[in-house]
């Protein structure tokens, strides 16, 4: 299989066409810390906004909006599947695993138990220019979570 | 149109093969043995062997710091550098003393913008370059960031206001409100000669006429015009022209600012240091006349020599020949791409006042994804906003795919591109 087909696996194209978690929403629960982060890839103009809500050390809600290539949009879709409802330690472990995989130039064996559909992005590692596309929503997530963690608890 | 009408002006296949043989990189393959179809000359052109040889010969035979030292190599290096200046000047119809070498066109434009803000601290001779609140700088919506951001920054530093001319839906400069945008408050009008996205060649005369009527300086970004058709900077009649060496078969790291002599003489320096001085004392210094005043430090000598070799190469072929080939190829490309379902060209769809840059979108495929699949077929195009983000916003698209053609491209390259776009439509399920 050509490298380009390894990158554009069916699973990625599916996520890009029918993305999960897309559309910024008001979190269901009030009184929790919420923040969002907007990240742009200045080389191509792709952008994504990720909104995160924390309940203590748990990421209870995540939603996103964005426009861009199928890699960045599918990455955002997979991200929302992987991290919603998880403790922050899990979120961070998944961020680290995804980051290591796509920046690993093909040398990192992805952990499927952690990354699930995310392992489909292993092929991105062959294309250094596209690594940023795959990481764009993850960087935004990390930022949003950090901002939410620093935010004051909302008044009920 | 008939096939013969399409091909009038095209280099004949034997000549095209001969030209391609001059470019070593065109014989390599990419991505698992594919022939390289290089359609990204608008970003940077490939280099013929003569340019590479000229740089190598300079280093092997003459290398020394120019305008310093009395040894033989210093003399030869200085001669090589100044001869390169004369060649480049001749190539664009300039007087030798009006050609300033810079790192690239971006630096050339920044040189003017920074010299203008430095005019606030210079003598009366620089008064005409001073800007302040109430003054205006005019650009266009189709500028490359290199001819936009430096002017935004100049306005920020001086308190002047930035204004701009719009772009019509057909991708032409909207001159309908020229008199409203360019007013007696306008001090500088800076605009692109040929759009790096739309391919549009802008009419210089009406803008220049209006600028002259209000006493504004005029700078033309000629990065996409000088490499592709004959340009005589003196005949253009403007005040400053900037272009890059690397887009016209020359090395990277060399660009040109052409300026009218009396303006360069009155303009304060941008970068200061060695080479650009007249007398230096501990308290203060005086500066050399142009062009040296604007060339602080040891210059990019090998790159200047390489650029001169590129000019010679283009002159030997003839810029009219280059322009005719590109025009015929553009006709061919516009027609072939126009037949692809869901493909929309940004910019003029005829070749009247239009260069060989064709940017387009394909329904249902993001340019980044399209570029990746084209790359897999050996086709190198540019994807993204091509450093013209506001222009893309104007057309309501975040990005586009751009094929930019040059003298070493042929209809075979266009055929590969078009077939690869068809393939991409199947690949992403939009065919």
What do you see in this structure?
The complex is a heterodimer of chains A (156) and B (431). With 156 residues, chain A is α+β, with helices and mostly antiparallel strands. Chain A has helices spanning 3-7, 10-17, 70-83, 88-102, 112-115, 128-150, and strands spanning 33-41, 46-55, 58-67. A 3-stranded antiparallel sheet of chain A has the order 1-2-3, covered by helices on one side. In chain A, a hairpin with a 4-residue loop joins strand 1 and strand 2. The longest helix of chain A has 23 residues, at 128-150. Chain A is globular. The longest helix of chain B has 20 residues, at 72-91. Chain B folds into 2 domains: 3-44 and 318-427, Aspartate Aminotransferase, domain 1 (Alpha-Beta Complex); 52-315, Aspartate Aminotransferase, domain 2, CATH 3.40.640. In chain B, the strands form 5 sheets. In chain B, strands 4-10-9-8-7-5-6 form a 7-stranded mixed sheet, sandwiched between helices. A 4-stranded antiparallel sheet of chain B has the order 13-14-17-16, with helices on one face. Chain B is α/β, with parallel strands linked by helices and 431 residues long. Residues 1-6 of chain B have low confidence and may be disordered. In chain B, helix 12 packs parallel to helix 15. In chain B, a hairpin with a 4-residue loop joins strand 11 (277-280) and strand 12 (285-287).
